[in-house]
UniProtKB/TrEMBL annotation:
It is an enzyme of class 2 (transferase). Gene3D superfamilies: Flavin prenyltransferase-like (3.40.50.1950). The gene is ubiX. Flavin prenyltransferase that catalyzes the synthesis of the prenylated FMN cofactor (prenyl-FMN) for 4-hydroxy-3-polyprenylbenzoic acid decarboxylase UbiD. The prenyltransferase is metal-independent and links a dimethylallyl moiety from dimethylallyl monophosphate (DMAP) to the flavin N5 and C6 atoms of FMN. The keyword Flavoprotein applies. Keywords: Flavoprotein, FMN, Prenyltransferase, Transferase. Its EC number is 2.5.1.129. Residues 6-173 form the Flavoprotein domain. This is Flavin prenyltransferase UbiX.
Amino acid sequence: MGEEKKRIIVGATGASGIPLLLQCLRMIQMDDRFESFLILSDSAKLTLEHETELKLDEVTALADYVLSPKDIGAGPSSGSFQTEGMLIVPCSMKTIAGIHSGYTDNLILRAADVTLKEHRLLVLAARETPLSSIHLRNLYQLSQIAEVRIIPPMLTFYNKPEEIEDMVYHIAAKLVEPFGVKAEKYRRWEGI
């Protein structure tokens, strides 16, 4: 009997950045030590239509399991559902506010709340610009929780990207790296 795979909950909300979600799911899929549980908000589905040419079933095929945000009784709503943690990519400021306040009216927010209470890793690809003082307050206060990693999708140029896909890959690798997911082409800063 094979070793159990490590579970990563992957939420996607209505901010721009669906190509990052796709690349993160591919990276998790390629690492046979992990499996993903995808929760797409209705707003994420709208953003998917706007930002890509993909159909919903093409995206959900990248995940091992797909859960409805309305299914508040699904596994990730309980701390007894063992996971490595949760990644939310993209993560809207509405979702940040919900996590910050403990407002859990859907499975994405409930799973994030459970992730925090169980002291598991919560990675947030926070997407907004410019940031208001309210956004900054919420992000700052979440950043004070040891298990929270706020990784805004920031462009980097030290890896000399040749096309947008190179930048998307690099950012996605940064988002999944805290869980131990390997990204073969990820280039770390090695110094000057």
